[in-house]
Amino acid sequence: MMLEVDKLRMGYSNGRIILHDLGFTLQPGQILTILGPNGVGKTSLLRCVNAMLRPWSGQVLLDNIKVAAMAKQKIARNFGYVSQRAEGAGMTAFDAVLLGRKPHLRWHSSRADLQKTDGALRRLGLAHLALRRTDELSGGELQKVCIARALVQEPRVLLLDEPTSSLDLKNQLEILQIIRRVADEQRVGVVITLHDLNLALRFMDRFLLVRQGRVFAAGSPEQLTTEMISAVYDVQVDIVRHKGRLLVVPDQPAS
Amino acid sequence: MAACPSIAWNSVDSMSSLDEERLWVAYGNYLAGKVIFLAGLSLLCAGLLIMAVSLGPVRLPVPEVLRTLVGSASDERLRIIIFNIRLPQALAALLAGAGLAAAGAAMQSILRNPLGSPFTLGLSQAGAFGAAFAVMVLGSGFMQPGQTTVLTIVKPWLTTASAFAGCMLISLVIIAIAGRRGATPEVMVLSGVALGALCSAGTMFLQYFADDVQLAAMLFWSFGDSGRAGWREVAIMAVMVAAALLFFACNRWNYNAMAAGDETARSLGVRVERVRLLGMITASAVTACIVSFLGIIGFVGLICPHVVRRLIGDDHRFVMPGAALVGAALLLAADTAARQLLAPHVLPVAILTAFLGAPAFLSILISRQR
């Protein structure tokens, strides 16, 4: 057992609860997709996992060690996080990706740090933008920079909050293929939130369907049913098999 | 599921094979350029320091100055001019410029606000009020028409502590405002203006009850002037500025991470709130120290970081030392010019920096509008 999220409960100070005793487990090399409509607490869930938010109750264990009790730097060595909104700054893309080495740095960035950054930039096809300022990049390029940063962090768990939201079709596929490879080859566990159910079905090992802060259903892609999707998203859908792949075809909003 | 079509991967791979140049080597060269820039600035500061010591009512030849500085000259008169008058003043200008510019760079990064500086956020005025309060109420200093200095502070630590308290109070208010949701740069700068006005009002209140000598003292005091620093003040400032620069250097990766957004910084293990608070305390402390010894010197802390960011980018590994060096060079040059412009009258350097800084401030505002 690698990552164990147990009965997380969290809410706002006004008493509104976002997460109701939510939990899941994640094995090394596995991709878990959190599915659910806007505002069900997917982002809050991710932020509770790496202790950026403190849940009211429940706990997160990494190899049976409480994450909340770890030093911030140790958490950052174990968890990479890519937020929904990428922010550009006056630094170059190389600098921005090099930041991912920060949890491992002492005083100076070593040659190995620079080489890892180099590798990640290439891997995401950003080599030609390496010395460009990040506030001059497009939304999609910036999102790839953020993913590259999380990769050079060399975490054991990647937490990705809609990493493909501002990418075009080709880049969406590329990014998810890279993430799939990282999971397979480096045995990194991935928790990812996605709105595109077809992308999710294609790349995930397991899903967690969230409704109103509670786990509505969980399982492997084959276990996802039209009833589950209709109940959670309020949309009638068909699930069809095309060239061996499962596809979700939206029909119409449920009345 | 791992069976992915190869089209996309090919495109990524072909791009890396096309681009054979090693990125990390190119990046290393890019960093080397910045190091050379900093080295050039250091040389400029050294040159300006020698020029500042050699220029004055009595012009001293540079070789003589150098010989005196290394201690191999025999002319006692020269030694007195250099070591008792010009060198402390030049070093005070150098340190004050470095400290104010570094504090400004830190504030701009911490508050994520390009208009942050000790002057625009009201910190200078608060420090001045604190120092005036110490001079007037706590009796930490008195006016003394002397050969070289106008004001002698008999209890420098009390004055510094009082100015520090003033700065801290204002910076805590600003942190509180910055922490609120939706606080735009404009709101923060305007609140800084308001707080600065409040402090000026407090200073005026003290001035109202001052006698002639005290009033003159306070008025002169508010003109930032590097000429009033002696070796003791220079030593204290040197320690404070060095400590602040060291602190900012230790936090350079934190500031870089925070430039990429608070969320990203948190996910990289940065304790954002703590870094913010400690950074503001450090910037306030070094500002308080400089203000309490030299008076208000505006705009250096605002302009220098912008100059550096424009020249070498936003990387805090280089912005902090770069801003300090540009600040040191600017204030040293301005101080030397202020002593020369209306010779034999000696202008306080703050008047000159205000003349230089106000147009620069406006140009930043206008360029941001575009």
What does this structure look like?
The complex is a heterodimer of chains A (255) and B (370). By secondary structure, chain A is α/β, with parallel strands linked by helices. Chain A has helices at 42-49, 72-78, 93-98, 111-123, 139-152, 169-186, 197-203, 226-233, and strands at residues 3-11, 17-26, 31-35, 57-62, 65-66, 79-82, 157-161, 189-193, 206-211, 214-219, 235-242, 245-253. Chain A folds into two domains: 3-224, Rossmann fold (3-Layer(aba) Sandwich); 225-255, no CATH class. Chain A contains eight helices and twelve strands. In chain A, the strands form three sheets. In chain A, strands 6-7-8-3-9-10 form a six-stranded mixed beta sheet, sandwiched between helices. Chain A has a four-stranded antiparallel beta sheet with strand order 2-1-4-5, covered by helices on one side. The termini of chain A are far apart. The mean pLDDT of chain A is 88. Chain B is built from 15 helices and two strands. Chain B has helices at residues 6-18, 23-54, 62-70, 76-110, 123-136, 156-179, 185-208, 212-222, 231-250, 252-259, 262-267, 272-294, 300-312, 316-341, 349-369, and strands at residues 141-143, 151-153. In chain B, strands 1-2 form a two-stranded antiparallel ribbon. In chain B, a hairpin with a 7-residue loop joins strand 1 and strand 2 (151-153). Chain B is globular. Chain B starts with 5 loop residues before the first helix and ends with a helix. The model of chain B is unreliable at 1-18 (pLDDT under 50).
